[in-house]
Amino acid sequence: MALTQVSSNKCAGGFQKVFEHDSTELKCKMKFAVYLPPKAETDKCPVMYWLSGLTCTEQNFITKAGSQLAAAEHGIIVVAPDTSPRGCNIEGEDESWDFGAGAGFYVDATQDPWKSNYRMYSYITEELPKLIIANFPTNPDRMSICGHSMGGHGALICALKNPGKYKAVSAFAPICNPIQCPWGQKAFSGYLGPDKSTWEPYDATVLAASYSGPQLDILIDQGRDDQFLSAGQLLPDNLISTCSEKKIPVVFRLQPGYDHSYFFIYSFMNDHIKHHAKYLNA
Amino acid sequence: NLQNQLQGKVAEMENFAGHLEEIFLTVEENFGRQEQNLEQHYNEVLQTLSQRYDDGASALQEEKKKKLESLYAQLLLCGQALDRSKDLIETAQEVHRNQDRRLFLKVMKSFLSGFLINTRVQPVLLERTPLADLSDVKTMMDSINVVPAPSAPVINPQTPNSASQTSLRVCWSLFSDDTVEFYELYYRPVLEEPPADSSIPSPPVVRQRDSSSCPEAALIRWESGNANPVDSYTVELREAGSDGAAESMVAVPACQCLVQLQAGRRYLVSVRAVNIGGPSDRSDVITVSTTGTFFHLLEDTAHPCLSISEDGFSVFYGDEELPISAMALDDTTFTRCVAVLGDLIPVRGRHYWEVEVDEDTEFRVGVAYEDTERNSYLGTNRTSWCMRHIRTPSRHKYEFLHDGWSPDLRITVHPVRVGVALDYERGTLSFFNADLEQNLHTFHCRFQAYVLPCFSLDNPGALTVHNGSGAPEHVFAITFY
């Protein structure tokens, strides 16, 4: 479990670092970003995991989302991994921007040629937390998860599939019902095969319908002028319906004028970190 | 531990440095003022001296002119006299040549007398010009270093809360330009004989329902209880269950008193009216508690269709139509929105209360300025902020209204107990699903004046207000979005 530091920049009183390691789940070298707030110099801190969307690496979030000031203020370590295994030399992995490299969809693939490397679900829920706990001053039972678009889908399914593991969950413009939208259908048929029953365990709307576990409190922000919302890729209404029926507490905010970009994420990042801090620091 | 000690020391040092800085600034200011004073003084002296010089110089000029003119006039006269004399001499010589001795003597006699008269020179007196009066300049120079006596302080009128049976607090103000070394306070008791026919007043009427409180303070209100005006009131309070002495606030001028208290306690309060005959008996005792924010509903503001329960904390909007005679025509009641205001204590701290509703109750709850428009709906103007619940056959809709605008949100679990948290300092009004401790929405607004809780029912239904217990920890623990 050796980590190599790739970069370190002082930021908001703490440090924004990037590390590289050999991943056992993904069988390749993986980078991830870690923000250490000033509090981490003297105390253990809770950890918020951020999952990025299609085409992103570990760089987009740390340079564009504006999370460091709020993370420093609330004493939270923020971990932002990459969005898929890299450099695996799988044929076709670079062909599309919404499938393969940069589009891991946070599932454990069962189909060739993906099943050996494309195990982002296990990487995020098992391997990465163990690595973080072993190498940084963390509170092992205080973690939360958050993400954007494909990463929002990732955050929601990780929380719903692991009741009690994450103390807080929130998302920006998440893909709420992948089995019903073009992105999800393309990715799941590629990674999981044609049998749709194997897709359901990775769909937040389906998981919400059968969720049982500690009470959740989900915050979702969605830009009203998001082109992917109007293109039917995100489908938040389906998730809201199901959560209303199943009494899963959600506050869903439709933000006028905002699109799908990091400018939108930046605008509401403070609110999300405060939401996480409420539960991580309780 | 060591780290805390060191941190403590650092804080002390910072404090000390802060003090030094303050002293530095004050000294700088004081010296600046002294320099200004000195400059001003000397300027005045210089101006006076310059003025005197001008006066003296022009006086000298005047004199010079006068004397020169008079001398010149005399010179002219002399010249004329000389000319005349020359003529006479010629005449005399001619006469002498004529050898008429008698004529010659006559001419000589008139010549001599004329000469004598006309050649008397006016003496020119050189007067000494008096020095200008410089005594006032001397006085000015002497006064430069003298500190002027300060102006008389102004004693503030006695405020309520400032006296007990054995002590009195006196406040006064000083002028900032004065230098003061110390004050001398003089006092003597004033004994007045009450007039023979005075009687003590009746005790005031204090009702539990008229008071409100919060963790830091309580507002006690009462009715005079006397037909004639009284001089003042004395409010007495004691912590319930303790043996501590009662505190009294004397010289309360009006029928209300805002008292600062300690959080988390219960107090027993009573009031006496005082006039020249002495204090009345004690009024009924009411209990005031500071465990949370506590208020009653202002029944005067309730829309006629809204009825209030016996205990004063539930409101109902019934189906029945009220007779026209029941429609109040005064301008404190709501006339369209079936609403009522609450009597929140005017203290700029943190306040929390909860509102219990049903699945289907269509309500608006929030806060409004005391003078909010009574003929408009809560949230549709700039003087009110509220959470609104709308029930459609298929779902629940929520709005967070202010000035007619609401963000666009969906909430999946309908709150049946809404928590409302008002924080004047942070400028926030937050709404919660109190059962889930879930934050729903926060308004950010620096409230310009005190606000009052407001409640309304948009359709027949009921709601109940719960207050007086402290806010759960999560409410004010963190600044909400």
UniProtKB/TrEMBL annotation, chain A:
<dbReference type="GO" id="GO:0052689">
    <property type="term" value="F:carboxylic ester hydrolase activity"/>
</dbReference>
<protein>
    <recommendedName>
        <fullName>S-formylglutathione hydrolase</fullName>
        <ecNumber>3.1.2.12</ecNumber>
    </recommendedName>
</protein>
<keyword id="KW-0378">Hydrolase</keyword>
<keyword id="KW-0963">Cytoplasm</keyword>
<feature type="active site" description="Charge relay system">
    <location>
        <position position="226"/>
    </location>
</feature>
<keyword id="KW-0719">Serine esterase</keyword>
<comment type="similarity">
    <text>Belongs to the esterase D family.</text>
</comment>
<dbReference type="InterPro" id="IPR029058">
    <property type="entry name" value="AB_hydrolase_fold"/>
</dbReference>
<dbReference type="InterPro" id="IPR014186">
    <property type="entry name" value="S-formylglutathione_hydrol"/>
</dbReference>
<dbReference type="InterPro" id="IPR000801">
    <property type="entry name" value="Esterase-like"/>
</dbReference>
<dbReference type="GO" id="GO:0005829">
    <property type="term" value="C:cytosol"/>
</dbReference>
<comment type="function">
    <text>Serine hydrolase involved in the detoxification of formaldehyde.</text>
</comment>
<dbReference type="Pfam" id="PF00756">
    <property type="entry name" value="Esterase"/>
</dbReference>
<dbReference type="GO" id="GO:0046294">
    <property type="term" value="P:formaldehyde catabolic process"/>
</dbReference>
<feature type="active site" description="Charge relay system">
    <location>
        <position position="260"/>
    </location>
</feature>
<feature type="active site" description="Charge relay system">
    <location>
        <position position="149"/>
    </location>
</feature>
<dbReference type="GO" id="GO:0018738">
    <property type="term" value="F:S-formylglutathione hydrolase activity"/>
</dbReference>
From TrEMBL, chain B:
<dbReference type="InterPro" id="IPR013320">
    <property type="entry name" value="ConA-like_dom_sf"/>
</dbReference>
<dbReference type="Pfam" id="PF00622">
    <property type="entry name" value="SPRY"/>
</dbReference>
<dbReference type="Pfam" id="PF00041">
    <property type="entry name" value="fn3"/>
</dbReference>
<dbReference type="InterPro" id="IPR050617">
    <property type="entry name" value="E3_ligase_FN3/SPRY"/>
</dbReference>
<dbReference type="InterPro" id="IPR003961">
    <property type="entry name" value="FN3_dom"/>
</dbReference>
<dbReference type="InterPro" id="IPR036116">
    <property type="entry name" value="FN3_sf"/>
</dbReference>
<dbReference type="InterPro" id="IPR043136">
    <property type="entry name" value="B30.2/SPRY_sf"/>
</dbReference>
<feature type="domain" description="Fibronectin type-III">
    <location>
        <begin position="200"/>
        <end position="293"/>
    </location>
</feature>
<dbReference type="InterPro" id="IPR003877">
    <property type="entry name" value="SPRY_dom"/>
</dbReference>
<dbReference type="InterPro" id="IPR013783">
    <property type="entry name" value="Ig-like_fold"/>
</dbReference>
<dbReference type="InterPro" id="IPR003879">
    <property type="entry name" value="Butyrophylin_SPRY"/>
</dbReference>
<dbReference type="InterPro" id="IPR001870">
    <property type="entry name" value="B30.2/SPRY"/>
</dbReference>
<protein>
    <submittedName>
        <fullName>Fibronectin type III and SPRY domain containing 2</fullName>
    </submittedName>
</protein>
<keyword id="KW-0175">Coiled coil</keyword>
<feature type="domain" description="B30.2/SPRY">
    <location>
        <begin position="275"/>
        <end position="474"/>
    </location>
</feature>
